[in-house]
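Appendix B. Raw example, untouched.
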Amino acid sequence: MRETVHNFSGYEVPTESSVAIMKASELRAFLGTNINAEDSLLEKLIKTARVAVEKYISYKLIDTTVEYYVDSVTFLGRQGLYGSELAYSQIDALTQGSQYVATIPLPLKPVSSITSITTYDSDNAGTVYSSSNYFLDTVNNRVMFNNDATTPSNLRQASAYKVTHVVGFGATADDVPEDIKTAIKIYAKNLYLPISQGRSIDEVGTAPYDMPTGAKLILDMYKEMYGF
């Protein structure tokens, strides 16, 4: 399923990571030693909380391949201003000399590597764009095009670029910051409380919940890390 970022872009995750973010015993210890819940219930709560946290901060916590589709590159002025009036016009040179730089901001964080960029022409034929034309700006979570890079001609109007990249802190749960894990535990605890009062996991797991205040205090720092 493609997630829409803007009306001109969206991303797909071919396969979600199956790596568990934490063990049921870790959540049990956080909830309290008198918790009698089965591991299967706690694992469901952890999974639900993880999804909520990832969506709240626009992150993937464990390394995940993401395919991001965008209609065109974005042009930035050398002074840091968006050249938005150029982003959708028919321009041959990506960088427009020295006045603008070309970029593709990426929607999920933290990006660790770019696997490939594929461009699509008006006949919907894909061509791998040479990696010598761009680099990954990990500080600002975006693809940056080199000054001498040029765009392929005759690109289709919609989803002309596909950026395949890896997002995540690492391949294992040990790579995920402990404060994010704490936020997941706080959210899972909020889910557990109504279950302990008799509500079903299916009912609680699908109900809309606001991010708990304690979790927000942690996660808002990550939301503010990048300019895009």
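End of appendix B.
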